[in-house]
Amino acid sequence: MDQRTEQQAGVLYAALSYIIWGVLPIYWKLLDHVNADEILANRVFWSFFFVAAVLLMNKKWGLFTGTLRGLAENKKKIAALTVASMLISINWFIYIWAVNTDQMIEASLGYYINPLVSVLLGMVFLKERLSIIQYISFALAAIGVLVMTVSYGQFPWIALTLAVSFGLYGLAKKLIKVDSTVGLALETLVVMPIAAIYIGYLVSKGSDSLFAGSWSTSLLLAGAGAATALPLLFFAKGAQRIPLATLGILQYIAPTLTLMLGVFIYHETFSAVHLLAFTFIWSALILYSLSRTKIAAALSLKMKKEKGMPM
């Protein structure tokens, strides 16, 4: 397969992963009669076994067990893995809860903000430098969040929790450089026993939806593992084949689809205040995307020279 065909396949895989993430709220809406904590427990539990099956089919089980043994001798990586597992679990829970309590618009805002949060975390923890344009994009995003906070008298905690938890998750993952499928298996393995105990507790009380509910609910809960793992696997295939800049542009497919679902399908309120706040966020993202181009880099260099700033 030549490079052009590889890139085309990469774009297809990445776009497919973001499309699935964007429409996944429809799946969680089908389970809105189930508590978010039970959905999360099933999502974690079945994800591990689905990914384990994928590892076996791809003959990567030896790689998984070898990585697991290697981690056992590295306390720093064990801590990073545990933190990553907890952060992604928090992210999943908040997202499911937001979708099933008709707050998809704010959830989509979180994933629009996420790239900017990731860059900010890179600056703070990895000492990465930002361009002038990137600083401006942060200011615009902050104004957007401030508009929502002042207008509603309530901090948009759902959006920021989603953005920060996923940003920190990505930061923790930088410390655990392993195969993507193996990494997902390890992350779900850490929290899977807790999920299994919780599901067992609900079953013992007869208040579970997995066995005590309808067959359709049971299938949806068990299918949450595949619904979680498949887009991650497609994403991994895409990320290996295309430039990071292309991946960065494609990532806005998911929150855009979620926003459209919230407004047009589930009829959540999208007020003038929402429009104003989102306009600032979208402007910030446009500037952020431009900051990654050669033209913006040249412009930033010119501005620094004019102001006599260090380069």
TrEMBL record:
Annotated GO CC locations: plasma membrane
Gene3D superfamilies: 1.10.3730.20
Keyword Glycosyltransferase in annotation: no
Location in the cell: Cell membrane
Entries under SUPFAM superfamilies matching the protein: Multidrug resistance efflux transporter EmrE (SSF103481)
Keyword flag Amino-acid biosynthesis: no
Keywords in alphabetical order: Cell membrane, Membrane, Transmembrane, Transmembrane helix, Transport
Residues covered by the EamA domain: 9-149, 158-289
Transmembrane segments: 12-28, 40-57, 78-97, 109-126, 133-149, 155-172, 184-203, 215-235, 242-266, 272-290
Entry membrane topology: Multi-pass membrane protein
Homology family: Belongs to the EamA transporter family.
Name of this protein: EamA family transporter RarD
